[in-house]
Amino acid sequence: MKRISLLLLGTAILFTGCMKETKSDNPFFNEWDTPYEVPPFDKIRAAHYMPAYLNGFAEHKEEIKEIINNPEEPTFDNTIKPFIYSGQLLTRVSRVFGGLNSAHTNDTLQSIQKEIAPLLSKHNDDISLNDSLFDRIRIVYENKEKFNLTSEESKVLEETYSDFVRGGAALPPEDKEVLRKINEELSLLSVQFSQNLLAETNGFKLIIDKEEDLTGLPEGVKAQAASLAKTMGLDNKWVFTLQVPSMTPFLQYSDRRDLREKLFTAYFMKGDNDNENDNKEIIADIARLRLEKAILLGYNNYASYILEKNMAKSPDRVIDFLTQVWNAAIPVTKAEATAQQQMINRENGKFRLEPWDWWYYTEKIRKEKYDLDDELTRPYFKIDNVISGMFYVANRLYNLDFSERTDIPEYHPDVVTFEVSRDGEHVGVLMIDNYPRESKRGGAWCGVYRSQIRDTEGRMITPVVTMVTNSTPPTGDKPALLTPTEAETLFHEFGHALHQLLSNSTFPGFTGTAVPRDFVELPSQIMEHWVFEPEVLKVYAKHYETEEIIPSEIVDKLVKSGQFNTGFATTEFLAAALLDMEYHMLTEPVNLNIREFEKKTLDKYGLIPEIKPRYRSTYFNHIWASGYASGYYSYYWSEMLDADAFQAFKETGDIFNREIASKFEKEILSRGGTGDPLEMYIAFRGKEPGVDALLINRGLK
Ligand SMILES: [Zn+2]
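Above: inputs. Below: predicted complex with zinc ion.
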């Protein structure tokens, strides 16, 4: 799981002027005198959100009324611009609330979320279904030649008009009412889905009280489990949870097949336990309502509605793309399964390989083939070193400097904050929040508390960016020592952060990562290419005790084993991506039986029983609650781009080639959503990418 946008509204973010003069008890009503207007987390209480939201709604409505009541003929400057810049208080509270509700939630925030979701949905609909507002926007759109617009302004006009049409503005009144109802129901169902998921994730613990049950586990893993137990008040016990940094090492190393089964089964049954947190009915309702919405708006299915705005354009194109990769991956995956079964047979196992065995035998084979495992590399991936490694790469490529700041408010002691600058000039603020806790949802993401824009006076507003991960935490006297995958995730989220930090556009909602879903992973995934480059490893991968640089034998092993287990990684991902597409390609309103639908779909494509999809339906937060509906394929679509884009560096023989980097910044990173993604890509690379770059990158060709 990677990025989500914290933007709940596509509206404005402008922190200058028009805040009330008098100080209120509620920080949302005051100007923030913190450095770079970072939210004053220390002063914000749960009780502040609701009044801020309600005032935000009222203020936004007033601004819309002013636009509508303008007696002059609609123009870009008197209609589109004030609309784009409207709703600043609402954006401000939404960002803080959305950010904290994902990274550091509690029961109070969760109940506010439930209360606010239908209100927010109503507010959005009041605007997007407002006839008078749409009329003005339509008139500007139909007369666009008159206004002498820049290309950025044309894009803003185009997108604003299309957002209104896609939001139902052109529907007859009775359909608008139906749409409102659907949107309201959908908003509540998504909230319920993710709250159930958090409860399910926190609801299971594998508690071990006999040391012999830890057989096979490395010392570091045991220590982490003991320290987790201690935080739960359990002395002389070991705890494993369904959070990935806790679960994965157990699946990799535990010799106890029965316990691996128990833990992994609890993981893949999340939301599917027929208890009060069950997500099956919620999913069936979401899928049905999305289809109804798409049909109402004139599309065959929800996927067509969504994909129209993406690079891929149509469901057929996505399925065609995914199938090409699937066909290349399945034979490799089957060979991997066979190798594992052979090892089981050799060891006289007398059982058939099951999903809870995969990690375990993968580790054994990796060890046999490359003499490499995560425990061997962990000491070289101390989290602070990995972070300085990614800063080093950003410095070589984009001349950025990072310095830690301790005078900036934080919402949790785990957060580390940096000021980003270039040639001594302030670029933005970057917060990093790395360790799992019960108040944080799973996965990793990047968002903003303030995005780069130019305000209505043309002044530059710099971004305040946050990256959140769930990485292996420190234990006892040991610092946080990461797996290579976790190091890669940090580089990934950092790529999104750079997209925000190096953004250099104008209009709210069109800067930074405000690009189509299947383009947004290009800036993040391209950063993953640097993480294990020997030239980069030599800079940051130092032993946490001895400072010894990672030995070149280990670097060789890392490079050589880079595509190991590629069949599995590709197949488990694609299974989830196909599941996502199939849910949203339904063209007839059916009452879905989720278990049946999932099984039928995966059987249709021929997923082997030894592998579960990366996300099963009932915990697929991306597509039910995070804006990735018929968009999970995007990671691979973007990989087509990033694999090809990294070649641009490789071809010059210099992975830090400044000329290529500045072209990437100019044509991609700085432009946000102000251009057509394919045109932007071609401007950078001089050609279109193809699926081959991805297949080669994954070792499937
Ligand atoms: Zn991402």
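Residues 2-3, 492, 496, 521, 524 surround zinc ion (CB under 6 Å).
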